[in-house]
Protein backbone atom coordinates (compact mmCIF):
# COMPACT_ATOMS: atom_id res chain seq x y z
CA UNK A 1 0.00 0.00 0.00
CA UNK A 2 2.70 2.50 1.01
CA UNK A 3 4.85 1.84 -2.05
CA UNK A 4 1.93 1.94 -4.50
CA UNK A 5 0.43 5.04 -2.91
CA UNK A 6 3.70 6.91 -3.29
CA UNK A 7 4.40 5.62 -6.80
CA UNK A 8 0.89 6.51 -8.01
CA UNK A 9 1.35 10.12 -6.87
CA UNK A 10 4.93 10.27 -8.12
CA UNK A 11 4.19 9.13 -11.65
CA UNK A 12 1.03 11.22 -11.93
CA UNK A 13 3.16 14.26 -11.10
CA UNK A 14 5.87 13.25 -13.57
CA UNK A 15 3.31 12.61 -16.32
CA UNK A 16 1.79 16.04 -15.62
CA UNK A 17 5.10 17.73 -16.47
CA UNK A 18 7.18 17.79 -13.27
CA UNK A 19 10.71 16.45 -13.20
CA UNK A 20 11.41 13.42 -11.02
CA UNK A 21 13.30 15.56 -8.48
CA UNK A 22 10.37 18.02 -8.33
CA UNK A 23 7.95 15.14 -7.82
CA UNK A 24 10.10 13.71 -5.01
CA UNK A 25 10.29 17.14 -3.37
CA UNK A 26 6.51 17.56 -3.59
CA UNK A 27 5.92 14.20 -1.89
CA UNK A 28 8.63 14.59 0.76
CA UNK A 29 7.17 14.29 4.26
CA UNK A 30 3.58 13.71 3.07
CA UNK A 31 1.20 11.37 4.86
CA UNK A 32 -1.43 9.05 3.38
CA UNK A 33 -4.21 11.65 3.60
CA UNK A 34 -1.96 14.23 1.91
CA UNK A 35 -1.41 11.91 -1.04
CA UNK A 36 -5.14 11.16 -1.31
CA UNK A 37 -5.86 14.89 -1.37
CA UNK A 38 -3.16 15.52 -4.01
CA UNK A 39 -4.58 12.82 -6.30
CA UNK A 40 -8.14 14.08 -5.85
CA UNK A 41 -7.48 17.80 -6.30
CA UNK A 42 -4.81 17.73 -9.02
CA UNK A 43 -5.82 14.67 -11.01
CA UNK A 44 -9.42 13.89 -9.97
CA UNK A 45 -8.31 10.40 -8.97
CA UNK A 46 -9.90 8.55 -6.05
CA UNK A 47 -7.14 6.27 -4.80
CA UNK A 48 -9.69 3.79 -3.44
CA UNK A 49 -11.00 3.28 -6.99
CA UNK A 50 -7.62 2.05 -8.19
CA UNK A 51 -7.50 -1.72 -8.91
CA UNK A 52 -7.24 -3.76 -5.73
CA UNK A 53 -4.28 -5.67 -7.18
CA UNK A 54 -2.33 -2.37 -7.24
CA UNK A 55 -3.39 -1.23 -3.77
CA UNK A 56 -3.38 -4.51 -1.87
CA UNK A 57 -1.13 -6.85 -3.81
CA UNK A 58 -2.00 -10.49 -4.50
CA UNK A 59 -2.48 -13.36 -2.08
CA UNK A 60 -2.16 -16.97 -3.22
CA UNK A 61 -3.57 -19.65 -0.93
CA UNK A 62 -5.69 -22.77 -0.86
CA UNK A 63 -9.31 -21.86 -0.21
CA UNK A 64 -12.02 -24.24 0.86
CA UNK A 65 -14.54 -24.66 -1.95
CA UNK A 66 -17.53 -26.93 -2.32
CA UNK A 67 -17.06 -29.26 -5.28
CA UNK A 68 -19.39 -31.80 -6.84
CA UNK A 69 -17.74 -35.19 -6.69
CA UNK A 70 -20.54 -37.47 -7.90
CA UNK A 71 -24.31 -37.94 -8.14
CA UNK A 72 -26.46 -40.20 -5.98
CA UNK A 73 -29.00 -42.73 -7.30
CA UNK A 74 -31.68 -40.04 -7.50
CA UNK A 75 -29.57 -37.63 -9.51
CA UNK A 76 -28.72 -35.34 -6.61
CA UNK A 77 -25.18 -33.95 -6.58
CA UNK A 78 -22.86 -35.08 -3.77
CA UNK A 79 -20.48 -32.31 -2.79
CA UNK A 80 -17.29 -32.29 -0.78
CA UNK A 81 -15.11 -29.51 0.57
CA UNK A 82 -11.84 -29.38 -1.34
CA UNK A 83 -8.87 -27.03 -1.16
CA UNK A 84 -8.47 -25.06 -4.37
CA UNK A 85 -5.60 -22.70 -5.19
CA UNK A 86 -7.01 -19.18 -5.12
CA UNK A 87 -5.53 -15.82 -6.10
CA UNK A 88 -7.19 -12.83 -4.44
CA UNK A 89 -6.60 -9.13 -3.91
CA UNK A 90 -7.89 -8.58 -0.41
CA UNK A 91 -6.94 -7.17 2.97
CA UNK A 92 -4.66 -9.45 5.00
CA UNK A 93 -3.84 -6.70 7.50
CA UNK A 94 -5.91 -7.22 10.61
CA UNK A 95 -7.80 -10.23 11.99
CA UNK A 96 -10.76 -10.45 9.59
CA UNK A 97 -9.15 -12.52 6.82
CA UNK A 98 -7.25 -14.78 9.23
CA UNK A 99 -10.37 -15.27 11.33
CA UNK A 100 -12.23 -16.60 8.29
CA UNK A 101 -9.31 -18.69 7.08
CA UNK A 102 -7.87 -20.13 10.27
CA UNK A 103 -7.23 -23.46 8.58
CA UNK A 104 -4.40 -21.91 6.51
CA UNK A 105 -2.13 -21.68 9.54
CA UNK A 106 -3.55 -24.64 11.42
CA UNK A 107 -3.71 -27.37 8.83
CA UNK A 108 -2.79 -30.68 10.44
CA UNK A 109 0.85 -31.56 10.86
CA UNK A 110 2.06 -28.38 9.15
CA UNK A 111 0.84 -26.13 11.93
CA UNK A 112 4.10 -25.99 13.88
CA UNK A 113 6.48 -27.27 11.24
CA UNK A 114 7.92 -23.82 10.56
CA UNK A 115 9.16 -23.49 14.15
CA UNK A 116 11.90 -26.04 13.46
CA UNK A 117 13.48 -23.64 10.98
CA UNK A 118 14.43 -21.36 13.86
CA UNK A 119 16.40 -24.12 15.58
CA UNK A 120 19.88 -23.23 14.38
CA UNK A 121 21.94 -26.33 15.16
CA UNK A 122 25.72 -26.04 14.81
CA UNK A 123 27.52 -29.36 14.65
CA UNK A 124 31.14 -29.27 15.75
CA UNK A 125 33.46 -30.57 13.01
CA UNK A 126 34.27 -34.26 13.10
CA UNK A 127 37.83 -35.56 13.55
CA UNK A 128 38.51 -32.66 15.93
CA UNK A 129 39.35 -32.69 19.61
CA UNK A 130 36.66 -30.76 21.48
CA UNK A 131 37.81 -28.64 24.41
CA UNK A 132 35.20 -27.09 26.70
CA UNK A 133 36.52 -24.35 28.98
CA UNK A 134 34.33 -23.54 31.96
CA UNK A 135 34.95 -20.38 33.97
CA UNK A 136 33.17 -18.69 36.85
CA UNK A 137 31.38 -15.41 36.23
CA UNK A 138 31.93 -12.49 38.63
CA UNK A 139 34.26 -14.68 40.65
CA UNK A 140 35.89 -11.75 42.49
CA UNK A 141 32.51 -10.85 43.95
CA UNK A 142 31.70 -14.50 44.72
CA UNK A 143 35.04 -15.08 46.50
CA UNK A 144 34.62 -11.84 48.46
CA UNK A 145 31.12 -12.76 49.65
CA UNK A 146 32.33 -16.18 50.78
CA UNK A 147 35.59 -14.89 52.30
CA UNK A 148 38.00 -16.96 50.22
CA UNK A 149 41.66 -16.67 51.21
CA UNK A 150 43.89 -14.51 49.01
CA UNK A 151 45.73 -15.13 46.77
CA UNK A 152 44.64 -18.80 46.85
CA UNK A 153 42.00 -20.64 48.82
CA UNK A 154 43.10 -24.27 48.92
CA UNK A 155 39.65 -25.52 49.93
CA UNK A 156 37.96 -23.66 47.08
CA UNK A 157 40.47 -25.09 44.60
CA UNK A 158 39.88 -28.58 45.98
CA UNK A 159 36.15 -28.05 45.47
CA UNK A 160 36.82 -27.17 41.81
CA UNK A 161 38.90 -30.36 41.46
CA UNK A 162 36.15 -32.47 43.02
CA UNK A 163 33.63 -31.00 40.59
CA UNK A 164 35.98 -31.76 37.70
CA UNK A 165 36.31 -35.39 38.83
CA UNK A 166 32.53 -35.74 38.84
CA UNK A 167 32.44 -34.25 35.35
CA UNK A 168 34.70 -37.08 34.16
CA UNK A 169 32.34 -39.60 35.72
CA UNK A 170 29.33 -37.93 34.13
CA UNK A 171 30.98 -37.66 30.70
CA UNK A 172 33.12 -40.75 29.91
CA UNK A 173 34.30 -39.06 26.70
CA UNK A 174 36.30 -36.51 28.72
CA UNK A 175 39.87 -37.77 28.69
CA UNK A 176 41.66 -34.91 30.45
CA UNK A 177 40.86 -31.87 32.57
CA UNK A 178 43.05 -28.96 33.57
CA UNK A 179 42.08 -26.19 35.94
CA UNK A 180 43.31 -23.32 38.05
CA UNK A 181 41.73 -20.43 39.91
CA UNK A 182 38.15 -20.13 38.60
CA UNK A 183 38.40 -22.10 35.35
CA UNK A 184 38.57 -25.69 34.13
CA UNK A 185 39.23 -27.04 30.63
CA UNK A 186 37.91 -30.45 29.58
CA UNK A 187 39.28 -32.33 26.58
CA UNK A 188 36.85 -34.70 24.87
CA UNK A 189 38.14 -37.61 22.83
CA UNK A 190 38.49 -36.95 19.12
CA UNK A 191 35.65 -39.21 17.98
CA UNK A 192 33.09 -38.27 20.63
CA UNK A 193 29.47 -38.25 19.48
CA UNK A 194 28.18 -36.53 22.59
CA UNK A 195 24.81 -34.96 21.65
CA UNK A 196 25.75 -35.64 18.01
CA UNK A 197 28.40 -32.90 18.50
CA UNK A 198 25.66 -30.28 18.89
CA UNK A 199 27.57 -27.23 20.13
CA UNK A 200 24.69 -25.67 22.04
CA UNK A 201 23.80 -28.86 23.90
CA UNK A 202 27.43 -29.58 24.81
CA UNK A 203 27.94 -26.08 26.20
CA UNK A 204 24.71 -25.90 28.17
CA UNK A 205 25.10 -29.42 29.53
CA UNK A 206 28.71 -28.97 30.65
CA UNK A 207 28.10 -25.62 32.35
CA UNK A 208 24.94 -26.81 34.12
CA UNK A 209 26.49 -30.10 35.30
CA UNK A 210 29.63 -28.38 36.59
CA UNK A 211 27.53 -25.79 38.45
CA UNK A 212 25.39 -28.56 39.96
CA UNK A 213 28.43 -30.54 41.13
CA UNK A 214 30.01 -27.41 42.64
CA UNK A 215 26.86 -26.65 44.65
CA UNK A 216 26.34 -30.31 45.59
CA UNK A 217 29.88 -30.58 46.99
CA UNK A 218 29.91 -27.19 48.73
CA UNK A 219 28.94 -28.47 52.20
CA UNK A 220 31.51 -31.22 52.01
CA UNK A 221 34.32 -28.71 51.59
CA UNK A 222 32.83 -25.77 53.50
CA UNK A 223 30.80 -27.44 56.29
CA UNK A 224 30.64 -24.28 58.41
CA UNK A 225 30.12 -21.79 55.58
CA UNK A 226 26.76 -21.18 53.94
CA UNK A 227 26.51 -20.84 50.18
CA UNK A 228 25.15 -17.28 50.23
CA UNK A 229 25.11 -16.74 46.49
CA UNK A 230 24.89 -19.47 43.83
CA UNK A 231 27.93 -19.76 41.55
CA UNK A 232 27.57 -18.97 37.85
CA UNK A 233 29.73 -20.80 35.34
CA UNK A 234 29.86 -20.09 31.63
CA UNK A 235 31.32 -22.35 28.96
CA UNK A 236 33.00 -21.93 25.60
CA UNK A 237 33.97 -24.59 23.10
CA UNK A 238 37.13 -24.93 21.03
CA UNK A 239 37.99 -27.45 18.31
CA UNK A 240 41.50 -28.60 17.48
CA UNK A 241 42.35 -30.94 14.59
CA UNK A 242 45.68 -32.24 15.99
CA UNK A 243 46.78 -33.60 19.39
CA UNK A 244 49.81 -31.27 19.33
CA UNK A 245 47.51 -28.24 19.24
CA UNK A 246 45.59 -29.63 22.21
CA UNK A 247 48.87 -29.99 24.10
CA UNK A 248 49.88 -26.45 23.15
CA UNK A 249 46.49 -25.18 24.38
CA UNK A 250 46.96 -26.89 27.75
CA UNK A 251 50.52 -25.57 27.98
CA UNK A 252 49.18 -22.07 27.34
CA UNK A 253 46.64 -22.41 30.14
CA UNK A 254 49.33 -23.64 32.55
CA UNK A 255 51.59 -20.73 31.58
CA UNK A 256 48.63 -18.44 32.27
CA UNK A 257 48.19 -20.13 35.66
CA UNK A 258 51.84 -19.45 36.54
CA UNK A 259 51.70 -15.81 35.41
CA UNK A 260 48.47 -15.05 37.25
CA UNK A 261 49.44 -16.84 40.44
CA UNK A 262 52.89 -15.29 40.64
CA UNK A 263 51.41 -11.83 40.13
CA UNK A 264 48.61 -12.42 42.65
CA UNK A 265 51.03 -13.86 45.22
CA UNK A 266 53.18 -10.73 45.01
CA UNK A 267 50.15 -8.45 44.95
CA UNK A 268 48.49 -9.85 48.07
CA UNK A 269 51.77 -10.10 49.99
CA UNK A 270 52.27 -6.39 49.32
CA UNK A 271 48.68 -5.56 50.34
CA UNK A 272 48.92 -7.65 53.51
CA UNK A 273 52.18 -5.90 54.36
CA UNK A 274 50.41 -2.52 54.37
CA UNK A 275 50.53 -1.28 50.77
CA UNK A 276 47.23 -0.18 49.28
CA UNK A 277 46.03 -1.99 46.12
CA UNK A 278 46.90 0.86 43.75
CA UNK A 279 50.42 1.06 45.15
CA UNK A 280 50.83 -2.73 44.88
CA UNK A 281 49.77 -2.63 41.22
CA UNK A 282 52.21 0.21 40.58
CA UNK A 283 55.11 -1.70 42.17
CA UNK A 284 54.39 -4.77 40.01
CA UNK A 285 53.82 -2.85 36.78
CA UNK A 286 56.24 -4.03 34.07
CA UNK A 287 58.00 -6.60 36.27
CA UNK A 288 59.21 -9.91 34.86
CA UNK A 289 59.03 -13.34 36.48
CA UNK A 290 62.53 -13.04 37.96
CA UNK A 291 61.67 -9.60 39.38
CA UNK A 292 58.67 -11.03 41.19
CA UNK A 293 60.73 -13.92 42.56
CA UNK A 294 63.29 -11.44 43.84
CA UNK A 295 60.61 -9.23 45.41
CA UNK A 296 59.09 -12.19 47.27
CA UNK A 297 62.46 -13.38 48.51
CA UNK A 298 63.90 -10.02 49.55
CA UNK A 299 60.82 -8.44 51.12
CA UNK A 300 59.04 -11.51 52.49
CA UNK A 301 61.74 -14.23 52.64
CA UNK A 302 59.52 -16.39 50.45
CA UNK A 303 60.76 -18.83 47.82
CA UNK A 304 58.02 -18.93 45.17
CA UNK A 305 59.04 -22.44 44.13
CA UNK A 306 58.13 -23.67 47.60
CA UNK A 307 54.51 -22.62 47.19
CA UNK A 308 52.06 -25.55 46.78
CA UNK A 309 52.15 -27.00 43.27
CA UNK A 310 48.36 -26.68 43.03
CA UNK A 311 48.77 -22.89 43.24
CA UNK A 312 51.75 -22.67 40.85
CA UNK A 313 50.89 -25.34 38.29
CA UNK A 314 47.14 -25.87 38.51
CA UNK A 315 45.44 -29.27 38.68
CA UNK A 316 45.21 -32.10 36.16
CA UNK A 317 42.32 -34.56 36.20
CA UNK A 318 42.57 -37.76 34.20
CA UNK A 319 42.14 -41.53 34.36
CA UNK A 320 45.34 -43.28 35.36
CA UNK A 321 46.08 -46.96 35.03
CA UNK A 322 46.57 -48.48 38.47
CA UNK A 323 47.33 -52.05 39.46
CA UNK A 324 44.57 -53.73 41.43
CA UNK A 325 44.77 -56.67 43.79
CA UNK A 326 43.39 -59.98 42.48
CA UNK A 327 39.68 -60.48 43.05
CA UNK A 328 40.29 -63.22 45.61
CA UNK A 329 42.22 -60.84 47.83
CA UNK A 330 39.92 -57.89 47.31
CA UNK A 331 38.04 -58.19 50.56
CA UNK A 332 41.28 -58.58 52.51
CA UNK A 333 42.43 -55.06 51.57
Structural overview:
Helix 7 (154-170) packs across helix 8. The chain has helices at 2-15, 20-27, 32-43, 52-56, 95-100, 139-145, 154-170, 199-221, 243-272, 277-284, 289-300, 309-313, and strands spanning 59-71, 77-88, 129-136, 174-180, 183-188, 233-240, 315-318. Mean pLDDT is 90; it is low at 329-333. The longest helix has 30 residues, at 243-272. The protein has 333 residues and is of the alpha+beta class. It starts with a helix and ends in a 15-residue tail after the last strand. The relative contact order is 0.09. It has twelve helices and seven strands. It folds into three domains: 2-56, no CATH class; 59-114, no CATH class; 129-318, tRNA(His) guanylyltransferase (Thg1) (Alpha-Beta Plaits).
